[in-house]
Amino acid sequence: MENQFVLIEKEKIEKILDLVKKIxxxxxxxxxxxxxxxxxxxxxxDTLGVSESTLKNLRRDGRIxxxxxGTIIRFTLDHIKDYIxxxxxxAFSKKGGMxxxx
Length: 102
Prior knowledge:
By secondary structure, the protein is an alpha+beta fold. It is built from 4 helices and 5 strands, in the order αβααββαββ.
């Protein structure tokens, strides 16, 4: 069997590579969206250990991010994690009459 080579113009190869990159990017984006779990208000409130009305107040006051789909409100685990991190206070210990960060 003989080796067969096909000559392709440089411009065509570049177009093919651009298409492959775009498809790869689209696949990555779809995978990220698929992995993104949306929680309803009840689930998000349960996760935070607060009532749904408290969660609504946090959302209204701009203290927690959310996703709105028409009239439906959803939260991601990242929204909840960001809220927890933003509201975490560092502990202090008392040493020799002074309070120091642990």
